[in-house]
Amino acid sequence: MLSIEDLKVHFEIGKRGRDRKVLKAVDGVTLTLKKGEAYGLVGESGSGKSTIGKAALHLVPITGGRLVIDHEDLTRIDQRSEKKLRRKAQMVFQDPHSALNPRMTILRSVSEPLVLHTPLRGAALQARVAELLETVGLSSQFLYRYPHELSGGQKQRVCIARAIALNPDLLVLDEPTSALDVSVQSQILEFLKALQAELGLTYLFISHNLAVVRYLCRRVAVMYLGVIVEEGETEAVFNNPRHPYTQALLKAVPYPQAVQPDKGPPLGGDIPSPVDLPPGCRFQTRCPARVEGLCDKVAPPEIQDAGGLVRCHLFAEAGRASG
Ligand SMILES: Nc1ncnc2c1ncn2[C@@H]1O[C@H](COP(=O)(O)OP(=O)(O)O)[C@@H](O)[C@H]1O
Ligand SMILES: [Mg+2]
Question: What are the residue ranges of helices labelled H in the chain?
């Protein structure tokens, strides 16, 4: 459904001339999502998750690599392919409060993509919007309401209705429950799970919350500073995290089942700046398993095996020893 190959998104920041710097938000990421699957993307804030989601929809410029959606190369985009892309893939953002125009009725907000991309107008348009609202669990009473009359959970449902209006195959969900009250988060997650099954949607589900990803996603990729450090079946990654970063992330989760008791100290310090990446392994400045002279000098290779993918010298060594 979605294939991202060696994706790079570099931002030029600072003033022109000598102050100009390159921020490598995404720096060589490869991902493949099968049709109908929910794929999780986790990592600390600043690791590049949202930028991947936005790049998949051309909401940020792609510096390098390839983007293929439903067998169509959409790496470079003209007006025609942009229209196609909008029908195939949509994004739901973290904050439903700022995603909706406060001066527009729900009817108008959800109508927008339909007016832009379909011939539906008048009564037929309204009927389609009512149908979409019903799909997300809202009655047609909401058609003429304004965002301020809705709760956070209801607003996010409206954003989801708008995102599925053109029957996309792929939804990029960027922390869709993080801005909501804890009490409604699980309702929205349950709803998203049911919606996916009902419509056969493919999800790229972005979250810093590992428990959420575990609930919703069959596969997961763990990102750190613009690269994927580990990838695999969600249950395998949770039960047997291999990369020291994944292990540290799991230890930071306040759920007893995720605690890995004897695997070193939890993660300390801050994520380094993607403007000034550490040499060697990107995680070496915080890694409890760092090997001096190796991890701080040589970038670890990507090890792909039956368990998935891991980018760490520990596993490269193990592979060489046994091979
Ligand atoms: N439009 C932009 N211009 C410059 N830097 C950006 C832009 N968008 C994101 N970044 C930077 O890219 C890095 C990754 O950001 P992001 O993808 O939002 O991470 P995450 O979603 O994992 O928190 C951060 O350092 C962020 O500041
Ligand atoms: Mg983000």
Answer: 49-56, 79-88, 96-99, 106-117, 122-135, 152-163, 182-199, 210-216, 234-239, 244-251, 313-322
Distance from residue 210's CA to the centre of ligand 2 (Å): 14
The preferred substitution site among 7, 22, 23 for testing ligand 1, maximizing ligand atoms within 8 Å of CB, is 23
Q: Tens digits of per-residue pLDDT, 89-131?
A: 999 999 999 999 999 999 999 999 999 999 999 999 999 999 9
Q: Which atom of ligand 1 is nearest to the CA of 275?
A: 25
- 23 Cβ contact list (under 8 Å, min separation 6): 10, 11, 12, 13, 273, 274, 275
* Shortest-distance ligand to the CA of residue 95: 2
Give pTM, 2 decimals. 0.93
How many Cα atoms occupy the beta-carbon half-sphere of 216 within 13 Å? Answer: 34
pLDDT at 259: 43
The tens digit of pLDDT for each residue in 265-305 reads 567 788 999 999 999 999 999 999 999 999 999 999 999 98
- Cα 54 to Cα 9, 25, 204: the distances in Å are 10, 12, 11
Predicted confidence at residue 322, as pLDDT, reads 52
pLDDT digits (tens, 9 = 90+) for 23-77: 999 999 999 999 999 999 999 999 999 999 999 999 999 999 999 999 999 999 8
Which residues, 6 or more positions from 195, have their beta carbon under 8 angstroms from its beta carbon?
135, 136, 160, 164, 201
Which residue, by CA, sits nearest to atom 10 of ligand 1? 25
- The confidence score (pLDDT) of residue 264 equals 47
Residue 141 alpha carbon to ligand 1 centre in Å: 38
Cα of 174 to ligand 2 centre, how many Å?
A: 7
Q: Which residues line ligand 1 (CB under 6 A)?
A: 11, 13, 23, 25, 43, 45-51, 274
Domains of the chain, first to last: 2-322 (3.40.50.300)
What is the Å distance from ligand 1's center to 105 Cα? 32
